[in-house]
Structure prediction request, 162 residues.
Amino acid sequence: MALAFDPIDEAARQWGRRWDRVPAMHAVTSLMRVQQLVIGRLDAILKPHGLTFARYEALVLLVFSSRGSLPLGKMGERLQVHPTSVTSIVQRLEASGFVARRPHPDDGRAVLAEITPEGRAVVEAATRDLVGDDFALGALDDGQLRAISELLAPVRHAAGDF
Prediction:
């Protein structure tokens, strides 16, 4: 149920009575709320496919790889997640039949995650649904979407993202 007022605006008003940096507080609170909304919608779109957005991202990464497989450590680097998170994601994908774990042919300590034909098929179907729903960002036009990406790039860069 929608509120009659914007709770983030109200929080910012209250914040400003006590502390500085209202614009930063308002922006970060807005970002976090939108992230919750978008992830919730993306996960709802992906649920019928047996995926979460994190698992979908891992499968797409494997589709983008030249051999359809990557070492788990490399996956963690590219997805920018902790190694235990990658292990958990891959275990779930393997249980669903979307990924197979294989020994690395050149490094006996490493394990490869390899996308299966079922994994490729689910990526195609899930991607159609995500694109059809504008990745849960249908309220924005392409110019606004580009502006968001450009606006957030310096924050990502300053954090060492790239």
